[in-house]
Design goal:
The N and C termini lie far apart (about 40 Å). The strands form two sheets. This protein has a six-stranded mixed beta sheet, with helices on both faces. The protein has one domain: 3-Layer(aba) Sandwich (Rossmann fold), CATH 3.40.50.300. With about 230 residues, it is of the alpha/beta class. It contains seven helices and ten strands. It holds the Pfam family ABC_tran. It comes from Candidatus Merdibacter merdavium. This is ABC transporter ATP-binding protein.
Length: about 230
């Protein structure tokens, strides 16, 4: 995969408009942060890229071709809410990944699970939210996907663990495209190639990180904060 794009995409939930005429491109090998306030449309855009939603208007394309169900096998997605129930055990999740994802690397996954002392008989319900997020992130990055989507992966993590999680993500990236929805762009700024900021379902900013620093003379965290403040007025 060279790139995935949204072309003039609009989306709504009943009478609530979630996205308005969004155009954006995520390129292979690049790290892009997706920022904005709550309800700005970030999760909807993530789900469209993941193939979990069909756009009401416009299209989602991989290398110029419409995204198909089969393409979802090339995409690894960590949603903002857990995909598994509290009673699920680590070993059961590992088996599910081995069964359903041909690109899953059980050896790499096993090493990471051992590093963070996860055992097969541990249940998700016994973990803190941060520990649970780290576990699910480990399973996602143990795939050899062409596109990784992370929806608020750092929200439940303390600052030290956020940095650790980002290092794990970068170690797994390879040539894949990376899109990370986050309220903490400053903490991953050194890795960023591109920044997108959503406002009321529209893409208010979509530019190279270096260009934004030169243009605005501030870091990414301050830039995002200024847009969120403006949105609340």
């Amino acid at each position: 995969m060279k790139q995935i794009e949204c072309a003039d995409v609009s989306q709504s939930y009943g009478r609530k408009n979630a996205l308005f005429h969004v155009d954006c491109v995520i390129e292979a090998g690049k790290v892009c942060a997706l920022c904005g306030g709550n309800g700005a449309g970030k999760t909807t855009l993530m789900k469209l890229f993941a193939g979990l939603l069909l756009p009401e208007r416009g299209s989602v394309r991989i290398d110029g071709q419409p995204l198909r169900c089969a393409d979802r096998a090339r995409i690894a997605y960590l949603p903002d809410e857990s995909s598994f129930s509290d009673h699920m055990q680590v070993g059961k999740i590992r088996l599910l990944y081995e069964t359903f994802y041909a690109d899953f690397d059980p050896v790499s996954c096993g090493r990471l699970l051992d590093r963070y002392a996860f055992r097969d008989n541990m249940r998700l319900g016994s973990m803190s939210q941060g520990t649970r997020t780290l576990l699910e992130l480990i399973f996602v990055i143990s795939r050899r996907a062409e596109l990784f989507l992370f929806d608020e992966p750092f929200a439940a993590l303390d600052p030290q663990l956020r940095e650790e999680a980002m290092k794990l993500i970068m170690a797994a990236q390879g040539d894949a495209a990376l899109l990370i929805s986050t309220h903490f762009p400053g903490e991953i700024e050194t890795y960023l190639d591109r920044l997108m900021i959503m406002q009321d379902g529209r893409l208010a900013v979509d530019a190279e990180a270096d260009d934004l620093r030169l243009q605005h003379g501030c870091d990414m965290q301050e830039l995002v904060r200024s847009y969120i403040k403006a949105e609340r007025r």
